[in-house]
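Pair request: fold both.
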Amino acid sequence: MTQAKPSYFYLNLLRCVATIAVIIIHVLGPMRELYGQIPVGEWLATVSYNSVTRWAVPVFMMITGALLLSDKRPFECDHYLSRRLMKVLIPFAAWTIIYSLIVGFGPDGWSSTSAVSTLAAANNTPAWYHLWFFYDFIPLYFVIPLLIPILKVMTAEQIKLLIATWLFMTSIFLLEVQTAITQDVVLYTGYLILGWYLHNRDNSQQLQYWVAAGLACMTINILGTWGIALQTGQYSGFFMDYKTINTVIIGGMIFVLGQHFAPRLEQRYATTVNTIGKYSLGIYLIHPILLIPVRQLDNGVYSWFGSDWLAIGLISIFTLVAALFITMLLAKIPLLQRILP
């Protein structure tokens, strides 16, 4: 979620749509577990939205790879740690504390015990569901400086082999083959390399293949998840993992579509897209607070809209606008600028 260079409008476009996709995933979260408890048509709404938005976090990682792995400036450790790493680490630490305090609030008021235990467990367990991202994203910042010189000396064919190897690993991860090398940091590093690779080449000739493969994977996600539910009687996230080949293909499709359509959209939508892109990390950090009453099913917020097909989309839009407005306001306060970059 690093800041894009002004000339890279398509990266801000990708940030914008990825931010929306993340909000959609979090809006539908509680509903996807209700298979057999709500009408199948409504449950399919949540599964369909979920299936076509799981690329969001991988695309954020691809954007980071596109920018940081393409940086041609000499590496300076102090600058990198203070300007790049701290830009992510400080918000993570601050919002872990904030969400730990929020956890303390319950029906009987605020409990310091709950808040402290949540904070104490934060070394391994995110204080809130969306903060998991930082546990996998921050280690990538230590990988990036090591990747840059390696990629510089590799030939085009060697890079293709590297990406092919990663694609194979994501395939066996989907098949749940246990190997020592299919670790999170390895599989997520692949997104950095893929983003860098696609960023530095013309992908127009391969666009139709990316779209065909990506749409096919989205369809498999929906039908596969529905099929598993019919067999087991419950929701399964088998096809929804961020580290599997189907998500990789969908993420690649979204990336090249962003490259393709950005020039056509820039003149008309540049202000909106760049604003959301600029505050994307703040929106990511803040929006779950707005969803607390929504995700409490007893409040019946989803039913206000008559259909989950409509509810998920509209709640996501309302949440995006509100989170953007709040982020822009808070970012004006000097004390908060470091935790809302």
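--- second member of the pair ---
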Amino acid sequence: MAGLALATGCSAEDDSGSPKSKAASSGASSSKAAPTGTSADSREHLRVGGTTRAYLLHKPTAPASGPRPLVVAFHGRGADPAEMRELSGLNKAAKARGMLVAYPEALRKAWGAGTAPNRKRPDPEADVRFAEALVAELVRTRQADPRRVYVVGFSNGGSMALRVAAERPRLVAGAVSVAGQLPTGRAEVRPTGPVPVMIVYGGKDPVRPVTGLARPGPAPKGEEPITATMSARASAQAFATAGRTKDPAEQARKGYDHTVWRPGAGKVPVELLVVRDAGHTWPGTTVTPPKGFGPASKSLDTTGTVLGFLKDQAPRPAANTADTADTAEASKSPERSDR
């Protein structure tokens, strides 16, 4: 897959940067299934709009004293939830913070991060509805806190996280994209409200450069078209504009350049971290990236940085609980049954 991505000038959507896993494929609706390599993880299913969708759910083993923060983590194109779990190391870091982590699975291993339909994806809104239904289900059944819902993603999954934040700002309390940018052109995504956002990007990304990919090459045969994206900085600026932040302040740190759009009164921050020696990777990961994806920098503990940023954000207003309940009602408590 990596070879195809580079040979055709494909985007960051083309691979996860993780080795392949052996997670089971989705099938009939089920709320519980066999463990997936981690005792606290289960593979679950949700029926959304007539389609069965799958996800891995990580639950901290310690009992909760109240609703838990929820992180929804989107894998990269060509990958799966188990690979995202391994690449990011989110389970261990989230456990220490008492967070639930849901790893949704894309159909055909790619997310509809852009707004333009195509032959492979005639309904470009389906994945946004899946994200909404998943949050509503976990609020209803797993004590997820609707005021502390966060979206995170890598590559194509990072672009998907940004789309959810852009189009559903009342759903999430924060969003982080690693190696993913906002779609532009026909598939353009525009932020519609203030959301705290962090973008982590590799300064040496050879797959989808930090400067963006305005004219992507053709997709491998049989796959969806490659989505054009704006630069990492323009992606951050779009959220800063929607959040009416102050002018950015830039600081060179050891191993990375840090740009912060500080919030005005009652607003939210936006941050961009460009890791100078990182490729199309999750900086700090223990997973070796595929050939041609550039180095996996150790200059930043991305996982700790991401969760620290999200935990620092204020919970959404209490009215968001009603919004989530409305989402759950609209999805009619997607069909589930235990195996």
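Observation on the second member. The chain has a mean pLDDT of 85.
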